[in-house]
Amino acid sequence: MIEERFKSVLIWIGYVFKAVFCLTPFLYMIVISLSSSPDFLTKLGEIEFSFKNYYSVLTSKSLHFVDYLRNSIIVSGVSAFFCIIIAGLAAYSITRLDLPGKMLILFLVLAVSMFPQISLVGYLFKFMSSLGWINTYFALIFPYIAWILPLSLWILVSYFAQIPKELDKAALIDGCTRWQILLKVIFPVAAPGIFSVSLLSFIFAFNEFMFALMLTIDYRSRTIPVGIALFQGLHGEIPWGNIMAASTIAIIPVVLLTIIFQRYIIQGLTRGSIKG
Amino acid sequence: MSYRTFSEAKQSYTFILPLIIFILAFILLPVVGTFINSFFRDISFLQRKFIMFGNYKQLFNDPGFYGAIRFTILFIVVSVTIEIILGLIFALILNETIPFRGFLRACVLLPWAIPSAISARLWELIYNYNYGLANFICIKSGISTGPINWLGSSVGAFFGLVIADVWKTTPFVTIILLAGLSAIPTELYLQAKVDGTNFLQRFYKITMPLLKPVLVVALLFRTIDALRIFDLIYVLTHGGPGGATTSLSLYAYKYYLAGDFGYGSAVSVILFVISFTLSIIYIKLARFGESGI
Question: pTM of the predicted model, to two decimals?
Answer without folding.
Answer: 0.89
